[in-house]
Amino acid sequence: MADGPIATTATAKRPFRIRTITAFVTLRPDDFDEVEDDGVTTDVTIKVDRCADILRGVEAELRNLGYDVQTARIATNPFGEWLIGGGGGCNVDDDDDAGRTTRRKKHARMNDAGTNDDAMTSIEIRRRLLLLDGLLDEREINFCSLGPSTDPELTARACSTIVSTSGRFSCSANVEPGDVIAARAAAACMKEISTLDGGGHVDGGLGNFRFCSSTRVAGAVPFFPGARAPHACDRVSFAIGLENGGYARLLLEEAGNIGGIKRVFDERMSRELMPVQEACSRFADGRDDSVAYLGIDTSLNPSLDDGGSVADAIECLEEVRGDFGGTGSMAAAAAITTSLQSIPGILTTGYCGLMLPVLEDKRLAELGMAVRPRDGLTIERLLCISSVCGVGVDTVPIPGDVSEDSLSSLILDVAALAGRWNKPLSCRVFPVPGGAVGEMTSFDSPYMCNSRIFGL
């Protein structure tokens, strides 16, 4: 999910990187109408400009303090609130005079053109996506989450289109516990995305890097693809996500055992995160009330650097017997997560858990390559550990011919855990076209390594 590290002399002074500064903004259907005399500028232009200004300002503050800032991102409210509906103006649910007038004009245009509703909607979706993509490109913002689909029909109708339109776009599908219809829609979408063939950002199943199912994922999560704006308002807010696998190893080596985790995390993380918090708060306080700082997602998040594996760091603890995933791993994950959620003096947001993305953590990828599956990492083990730590089943390669039934059952398992323990969890898996269990993946991505395909 991150850009490659940027080497600077100042970076060595800081024990972790800033993986993302994520700005959250609320969009509406009429934001895409022309609003200025130039016939070009729209409200969405103005909103993207505001986000870009805030992101660059916060980035400058953090770089001045010696932090390596990898990405600046934007996340919107659920895309069903602005991408579909109100074509050319207001949301289709608006009942005021302006909304009714806009709908009459829209239907008149459709009737004149002899075009049905579905075709017209598809045209409007693509127009809005391309407009937004162009604005992001001009401002050099390469990551934008369009929030979750909150309806299975919307998942089927739009998510694959969003992912295929641009490598900048991410989205998700909300699946409530026990919602079989929503799980099946998300599974079908994952399968469809795996077959896309339209450029490097989707080829070979890579498009599923930017799509997941999500359950209990609230607003203000800075990490993708589950990120979305926290509430509908005109205020732009922002949050920070970290990349800290190497730092995790230092902390856990110092702790030595599960009993020492809270003390070390409370002391060390509080001290190291405070400059980030102070810089972000200072920036927000220097603006008017239209900007809000929401906090730091303190999650342990790996990198592909040597020594950047979170799983490898956890293996340093006395109680973890053998490889990560074996006995002691769940107890360690639970202790780490409890500590991450209550760092003294730090305003937190997002997952604040233990991130275990198989293809973004070299040790996890290595464990996935065990000759005998029972000796290595499995989806079942990842699910089990997710019950105490979050963030779910993440970047796991699975066979390309996996059935939608099997995939939807996995999604339902993740949703059940999230619902039972009231915690944010997601499911992001990669059906590999033509790939079978045990075969190696061959993804060509700066954000991932390769491993063997897991069974499901």
From TrEMBL:
SUPFAM superfamilies: PFL-like glycyl radical enzymes. InterPro entries: UPF0210. Residues 95-115 are annotated as: Disordered. Pfam families: DUF711. It comes from the Eukaryota. PANTHER family: DUF711 DOMAIN-CONTAINING PROTEIN (PTHR37560:SF2), UPF0210 PROTEIN SPR0218 (PTHR37560). This is DUF711 family protein. It comes from Stephanodiscus triporus. The lineage of its organism: Eukaryota, Sar, Stramenopiles, Ochrophyta, Bacillariophyta.
